[in-house]
């Protein structure tokens, strides 16, 4: 009988078969068949190991891709925010900077073989600096306005010359009101509040190209923010003096939004308006006698599938 050498760690029957099929000229057909089966088993095991390794690599790649996509979305949102920033446009920190930001967005998008998000609407041109200097240096009509202009000068900058002047003139009658600083800051910061609301709604629905209505638009801050994001903006308010302030705000921001003197509590006043895809009514319902009726009027202005 033939001797069979054992190797460390090998099963006796496997070693026996290996020696038989490899070294013995007297191996039977059965021995060869069994040896072939063991080889096939090993090949299958190796194939499965390769598949598992490949699957692990794919999983890692997918996770890395998702992280990169998420980072791309964050960068795109940040770039859009910078491009829409009033201070970015006024300071004109350089077309080269803007081009670099856009190149980054395009290059990241190209990594995944997909086009980048639609570009944000073109930002309005920066205010004419000579016009700004003229407005900021112009004398106010009376001592009260000059006093208020000096008192609130920290709110004045190159991005709001017309609006600042109009607001000072509008509030001069309340120069002795202890709440005047609160009123002034609330009015002068209307665009920032509009930006926050537009950003919030922009997470849930597309704004570009939408028909947008702001009820009780007052100083026009919401209209400015939505117009900068490409919406077709319309505003209504009861107070003509507030609409005048909104027009001054629009002039500084270089937007063309429609504003109308209308009363939302009177259904007849809303004839010819709408439908709108997006409607906001900030600080309105708490001031009306019939909130439910006012909401019904607003609902009639909403397009199918719209949001209010």
Can you walk me through this structure?
With 308 residues, the protein is an alpha/beta fold. Helices cover 56% and strands 8% of the residues. The protein has helices at residues 12-23, 29-84, 86-91, 95-110, 129-137, 143-151, 161-171, 180-188, 190-202, 221-228, 240-253, 291-300, and strands spanning 211-215, 232-237, 258-261, 276-280, 302-307. The chain has a 5-stranded parallel sheet. Helix 2 (29-84) runs antiparallel to helix 4 (95-110) and helix 7 runs antiparallel to helix 11.
Structure keywords:
308 residues; alpha/beta; five-stranded parallel β-sheet; 12 helices; elongated; disordered N terminus
Question: Would you kindly provide a brief summary of this structure?
Answer:
The chain has about 300 residues and is an alpha/beta fold.
Low-confidence stretches: 1-23, 86-95
Shape type: elongated
Percent range for helical residues? 55-70%
Main β sheet profile: 5 strands, parallel
Quaternary status = single chain
**Total count of strands:** 5
- Name the average pLDDT: 77
Question: What structural class is derived from the secondary structure elements?
Answer: alpha/beta
How much of the sequence is in beta strands? 5-15%
- Compute the separation of the termini in Å: 93 Å
Trace the largest sheet across and list its strands.
3-2-1-4-5
Continuous helix count: 12
Order of helices and strands: HHHHHHHHHEHEHEEHE
Gyration radius from CA atoms, angstroms = 35 Å
